[in-house]
């Protein structure tokens, strides 16, 4: 378990993390979301004792990170897959980590096999692709067989098979009762992986809730209906006090009603339905809605202005 209480980090006048309090619990995958510059990386670095908090506290299973003996046995982390000595082989990189944390040499072979790098174990890390580097970083996180795991953008550079593998790995680790904390900008993947979400913006806590509740609270849910008996359908809905709004393509949308009730009304009045489907926003849409006012860096879709060939310009 990871516990944060009033965690704050300032860099001069800049407040990177502002009074964060939340708990990352075992047995589930907790997703850590926020726009660029929200303070996610700084928060994770403070969890691992790489940055010292300006105020507040963070504990790993009730203990400060710097007081953990053989910390890789308590918490494994992937923060930067490139943080590897390029002249070392994958095997020797992991062996150094193992020896410094009292981990048996046999464990190196086990994690190399787990991440699929056995065939390249003796090759130097500088020749690894981004995806292979990610796998090596994940192997390092797993090396101590820790109860807590932290991953920052773990699917970077992975192919579809690799993404499927890391998704199932994180779910499997959580199912074993471990604490799994993962930060990612890939919303579609987070929606398939995380059970719980912690969302921050400009260093502040915006949400600490289950995936289902997060989407429900930050998005619009409605029922979409299509029928060849459009007028009769509207009459039936109106008679039941239900307001339907017509949309492009001839469908209707109804807010605040369950599809079961609409289906039962249609059946009672012999109205043919071609579609009756509950609609809910994606995680990405809910995230964008919640964090709209917390985005620090805004890009613009306008193309750069093209030079006008005329006075003051000489083409060629």
Q: Can you put this structure into words, describing what you see?
A:
- 32% of the residues lie in helices and 24% in strands.
- A hairpin with a 2-residue loop joins β8 (196-201) and β9.
- The chain has helices spanning 40-47, 90-100, 106-115, 130-142, 160-175, 187-193, 211-217, 230-239, 259-268, 283-291; strands at 2-11, 14-24, 29-33, 55-60, 75-78, 148-152, 179-183, 196-201, 204-210, 221-226, 245-246, 252-255, 275-280.
- It is built from 10 helices and 13 strands.
- The strands form 3 sheets. It has a 6-stranded mixed beta sheet, with helices on both faces. Strands 11-12-10-13 form a 4-stranded antiparallel beta sheet, covered by helices on one side.
- The N and C termini lie far apart (65 Å).
- It is an alpha/beta fold.
- The protein is elongated, with a radius of gyration of 26 Å.
């Amino acid at each position: 378990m990871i516990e944060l209480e009033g965690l704050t980090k300032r860099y001069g006048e800049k407040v990177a993390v502002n009074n964060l309090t939340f708990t990352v619990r075992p047995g589930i995958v907790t997703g850590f979301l926020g726009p660029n510059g929200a303070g996610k990386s700084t928060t994770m670095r403070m969890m691992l004792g790489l940055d010292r908090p300006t105020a507040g506290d963070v504990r790993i299973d009730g203990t400060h990170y710097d007081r953990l003996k053989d910390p890789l046995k308590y918490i494994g982390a992937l923060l930067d897959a490139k943080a590897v000595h390029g002249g070392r082989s994958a095997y020797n990189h992991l062996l150094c980590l193992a020896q410094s944390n009292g981990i048996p040499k046999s464990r190196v072979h086990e994690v190399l096999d787990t991440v699929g790098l056995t065939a390249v174990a003796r090759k130097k890390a500088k020749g690894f692709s981004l995806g292979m580097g990610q796998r090596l970083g994940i192997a390092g996180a797993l090396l101590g067989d820790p109860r807590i795991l932290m991953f920052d953008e773990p699917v970077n550079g992975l192919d579809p098979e690799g993404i499927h593998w890391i998704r199932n790995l994180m779910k499997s680790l959580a199912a074993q009762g471990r604490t799994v904390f993962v930060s990612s900008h890939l919303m579609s993947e987070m929606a398939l992986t995380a059970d719980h979400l912690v969302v921050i913006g400009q260093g502040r806590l915006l949400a600490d809730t289950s995936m289902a509740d997060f989407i429900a609270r930050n998005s619009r849910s409605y029922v979409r209906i299509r029928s060849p008996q459009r007028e009769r359908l509207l009459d039936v809905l109106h008679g039941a006090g239900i307001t339907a709004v017509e949309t492009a393509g001839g469908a209707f949308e109804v807010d605040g009603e369950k599809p079961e009730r609409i289906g039962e009304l249609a059946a009672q009045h012999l109205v043919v339905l071609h579609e009756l489907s509950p609609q809910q926003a994606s995680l990405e849409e809910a995230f964008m809605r919640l964090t709209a006012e917390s985005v620090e860096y805004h890009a613009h879709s306008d193309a750069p202005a093209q030079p006008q060939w005329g006075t003051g310009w000489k083409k060629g």
